[in-house]
């Protein structure tokens, strides 16, 4: 195939995807008018964020602030009434909340409860956030420090978690099966993890990227990482057009692209940094190049020490995830053994919390 033909094929694909995104956005977007009284029935697909006396969630494209009680959790079916006020729901009233009866949300709740029994706050909230993306279990004062220090992207489940799940499952399954035959088990593992941790934009982005990459491997093709990234963005926006205005979605893609562009180059300038910190520091610096302008424009502030703070804590994440995941899973059946495994991660969790407390 000639380069000219390939160019026009790619151009046609881009035009088609953009057209589908625009069509889906304008045909599926709820039409709200300020002052309209609405009644929303929806399933909560991400943990509400807890504040003193209130909890914040987003459903049907609207930000909603409710009293802390009754608590709303991931997977719950809610009915909420209120008055449209821009992108928020004013005067919200929680008419009913029905706890999810699904297997995923049930297991998720039991694991989080186990963390809370074994570890004190803010450690239990930190582990639940890192492994399952449970923002609602993180103490409000600690959550504010997490955001101030610029490490929120690792305290809540993100694309990094999916990457770790993929690497771990692929490494384990490859001992027993050829790489191609192991792919279906890895895909199943990714799907189960999404049901447990929620369907936030960064997680879905990473999961779709992994699925596309595995599909290419199964077909025996070499594919461009950039192509996968942009196809992922298009597919996600076609399926969920609301993510076009989601800050988390934008930060996820910009940080990924920024890491792809700058990480290796920055790593070459940091050869003097010890290996245990170099990877985290180069990754964090690379991500911040793209993310910092967005955060500054959106919130008007940026922590200049964020790359250093990230480098100090990022190295603990894989070990916390391994010990926390195994400890939580084992603890459901054998609580004492689960406690022992979680206690092994205590020094790592203490280090992470201490760094956030010092810089926050």
> What is the residue-averaged pLDDT?
78
Radius of gyration: 21 Å
What's the total number of strands?
Answer: 6
What share of the residues does DSSP label as strand, in percent? Answer: 5-15%
Structural class: mainly alpha
Span between termini: 56 Å
Low-confidence residue ranges: none
**Total of DSSP H or I helical runs spanning 4+ residues:** 15
- What is the spatial order of strands in the main beta sheet? 1-5-6
Provide keyphrases for this structure.
360 residues, mainly alpha, 3-stranded antiparallel beta sheet, 15 helices, globular
What does this structure look like?
This protein is mainly alpha-helical and 360 residues long. The chain contains 15 helices and six strands. A three-stranded antiparallel beta sheet has the order 1-5-6, with no helix packed on it. Strands 2-3-4 form a three-stranded antiparallel beta sheet, with no helix packed on it. 36% of the residues are buried. The mean pLDDT is 78.
Précis, in short:
With 360 residues, the protein is mainly alpha-helical.
Draw up the topology in text.
Layout lengths: L2 H26 L8 E7 L5 E3 L2 E6 L2 E6 L9 E9 L2 E11 L4 H16 L4 H10 L7 H10 L2 H4 L3 H15 L5 H19 L3 H18 L6 H15 L7 H23 L5 H25 L6 H9 L2 H17 L1 H10 L1 H14 L1
Antiparallel strand pairs: 1-5, 2-3, 3-4, 5-6
């Amino acid at each position: 195939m000639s380069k000219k033909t390939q160019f026009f094929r790619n151009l046609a694909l881009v035009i088609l995807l953009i057209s589908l995104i625009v069509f889906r956005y304008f045909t599926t977007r709820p039409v709200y008018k300020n002052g309209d009284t609405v009644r929303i029935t929806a399933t909560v697909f991400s943990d509400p964020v807890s504040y003193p006396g209130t909890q914040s969630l987003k459903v049907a494209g609207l930000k909603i602030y409710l009293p802390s009680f009754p608590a709303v959790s991931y997977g719950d079916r809610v009915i909420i009434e209120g008055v449209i006020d821009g992108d928020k729901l004013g005067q919200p009233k929680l008419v009913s909340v029905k706890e999810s009866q699904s297997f995923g949300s049930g297991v998720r709740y039991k694991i989080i409860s186990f963390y809370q029994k074994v570890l004190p706050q803010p450690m239990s909230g930190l582990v639940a956030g890192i492994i399952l993306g449970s923002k609602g279990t993180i103490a409000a004062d600690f959550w504010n420090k997490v955001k101030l220090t610029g490490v929120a992207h690792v305290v809540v489940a993100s694309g990094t978690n999916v990457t770790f799940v993929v690497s771990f499952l692929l490494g384990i399954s490859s001992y027993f099966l050829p790489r191609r035959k192991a792919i279906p088990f890895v895909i199943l593992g990714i799907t189960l993890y999404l049901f447990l941790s929620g369907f936030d934009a960064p997680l879905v982005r990473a999961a779709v990227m992994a699925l596309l990459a595995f599909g290419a491997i199964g077909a025996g093709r070499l594919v461009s990482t950039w192509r996968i990234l942009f196809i992922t963005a298009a597919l996600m926006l076609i399926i969920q057009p609301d993510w076009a205005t989601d800050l988390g979605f934008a930060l996820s893609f910009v940080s990924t692209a920024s890491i792809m562009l700058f990480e290796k180059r920055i790593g070459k300038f940091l050869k003097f940094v010890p290996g245990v910190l170099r990877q985290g520091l180069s990754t964090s610096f690379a991500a911040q190049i793209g993310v910092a302008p967005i955060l500054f424009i959106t919130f008007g502030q940026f922590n200049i020490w964020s790359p250093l703070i990230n480098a100090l804590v990022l190295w603990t994440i894989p070990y916390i995830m391994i010990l926390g995941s195994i400890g939580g899973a084992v603890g459901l059946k054998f609580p004492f053994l689960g406690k022992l495994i979680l206690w092994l991660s205590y020094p790592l969790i203490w280090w992470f919390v201490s760094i956030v407390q010092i810089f926050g």
